[in-house]
């Protein structure tokens, strides 16, 4: 597809005339026969037409500048947001596989641990969890000459990494899809209309003309990020480009059904029982507002012996009811109250999150934090419903 104007040798991105692997490797059987040239041509033409199918989202300036920085950097670090989700991990590891493939010295540093059902992602064994290896994480960040900031729009989202990244002399490249990015990077590749940061990583690699360096493990990570940030392609995923990209990823050999199962069919018994409990006992409906709210206290959370990430997805379930367009999930954590918001249609979760809880996010998925009691957070949520009643009651 991208006709590799650039390939890498010895860690440097240089010009080459390579044709993308997706195009050639699908026609290997005929390679030794007389048909080879003919078939090769068909595939090449097909690939050429495909190049045009992927709209150019990232600006040429950003691509050229990022490429220069990659070429001249030796020690790279990829950082992402606290409580890393599928997209944070998928984009970070996808980029890590790509840069490692170029022979670069690159590490992924995450602020804290991530859910166990992402442990299978290729490369997680190389991830540095800063909370557990603080000294090593700060050394890596301090001595880096290039830092990639993935899947967050403000440095405070990196929690314990915030000051380390701020103080590092490294050049910084942001790749993200959250609204209103703060200016803390030398290059900002920010596209809030994209499904995921992982989609942007794919586009970033392709625009540099290096699709052939998207290995199967790299594709697996990128696909996982796109899948989890779109609820397995059930929201924020109607652009044809998304399925074009998925098709390209599948050609590397990944098994999308297996990936789905590895992420979504891995629940513990505690998680499944807790789900039954919250839906039966804890789901409150505000019929006039087409809204539902689930709350969960720290005590309840502990009673079911659930692990980090085990309540992920609860907030989506009430949206499966025909009359519900807005769903809130308020969970008491050790040091704060976590707010998750989801909607279907055009109700703006991000506006609600910002105006009521000082948080942010996307139209159909947003969140925030609240410091106070669970009861106060619920009262605040209910005030918000009043404030947004025009949009909710229609
Ligand atoms: Mn994301």
CATH topology of the largest domain: inorganic pyrophosphatase (n-terminal core)
Gross CATH architecture of the largest domain: Alpha-Beta Complex
Q: How many distinct folded domains?
A: 3
**SSE class:** alpha/beta
Explain what you see:
There is one protein chain. This protein folds into three domains: 6-53, no CATH class; 60-264, inorganic pyrophosphatase (n-terminal core) (Alpha-Beta Complex), CATH 3.90.1640.10; 269-393, Diaminopimelate Epimerase, Chain A, domain 1. Residues 1-11 and 14-32 have low confidence and may be disordered. Helix 8 crosses helix 10 (256-264). It has helices at residues 21-24, 36-53, 60-72, 86-101, 134-143, 162-167, 197-207, 216-229, 240-250, 256-264, 269-282, 298-303, 349-357, 374-387, 389-393, and strands at residues 6-9, 12-15, 75-80, 105-110, 128-129, 146-150, 171-176, 187-190, 283-286, 291-296, 326-332, 337-343, 360-361, 365-370. With 394 residues, the protein is of the alpha/beta class. Strands 5-4-3-6-7-8 form a six-stranded parallel β-sheet, sandwiched between helices. The chain has 15 helices and 14 strands. It is 41% helix and 18% strand. Residues 87, 151, 177, 196-197, 229 line the site of manganese (II) ion.
């Amino acid at each position: 597809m991208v006709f590799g104007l650039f390939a890498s040798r010895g860690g440097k991105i240089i010009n080459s005339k390579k044709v993308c692997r997706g195009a050639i490797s699908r026609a290997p059987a005929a390679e030794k026969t007389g048909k080879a040239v003919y078939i090769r041509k068909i595939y090449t033409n097909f690939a050429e037409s495909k190049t045009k199918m992927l709209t150019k989202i990232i600006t040429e300036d950003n691509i050229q500048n990022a490429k220069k920085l990659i070429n001249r950097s030796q020690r790279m670090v990829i950082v992402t947001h606290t409580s890393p989700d599928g997209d944070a991990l998928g984009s970070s590891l996808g980029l890590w596989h790509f840069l490692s493939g170029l022979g670069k010295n690159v590490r992924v540093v995450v602020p804290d641990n991530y859910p166990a059902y992402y442990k299978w992602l290729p490369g997680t064994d190389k991830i540095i969890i800063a909370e557990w290896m603080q000294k090593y994480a700060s050394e890596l960040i301090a001595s880096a000459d290039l830092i990639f900031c993935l899947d967050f729009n403000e440095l405070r989202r990196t929690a314990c990494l915030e000051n380390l990244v701020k103080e590092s002399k490294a050049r910084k490249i942001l790749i993200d899809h959250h609204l209103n990015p703060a200016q803390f990077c030398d290059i900002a590749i920010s596209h809030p209309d994209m499904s995921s940061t992982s989609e942007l990583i794919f586009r970033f690699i392709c625009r540099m003309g290096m699709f052939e360096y998207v290995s199967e493990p790299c594709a697996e990570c990128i696909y996982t990020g796109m899948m989890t940030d779109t609820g397995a392609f059930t929201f924020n995923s109607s652009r044809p480009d998304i399925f074009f990209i998925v098709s390209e990823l599948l050609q590397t050999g990944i098994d999308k059904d297996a990936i789905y199962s590895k992420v979504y069919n891995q629940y513990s018994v505690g998680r499944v029982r807790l789900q039954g409990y919250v839906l039966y006992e804890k789901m409150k409906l505000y019929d006039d507002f087409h809204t539902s709210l689930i709350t969960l206290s720290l005590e309840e959370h502990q009673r079911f012996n659930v692990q980090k990430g085990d309540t992920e997805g609860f907030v989506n379930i009430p949206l499966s009811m025909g009359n519900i367009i807005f769903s809130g999930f308020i969970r008491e954590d050790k040091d704060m109250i976590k707010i998750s918001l989801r909607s279907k249609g055009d109700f703006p979760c991000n506006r609600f999150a910002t105006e009521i809880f000082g948080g942010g996010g996307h139209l159909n998925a947003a969140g925030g934090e609240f410091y106070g009691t669970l009861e106060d957070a619920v009262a605040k949520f209910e005030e918000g419903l009043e404030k947004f009643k025009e949009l909710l009651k229609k």
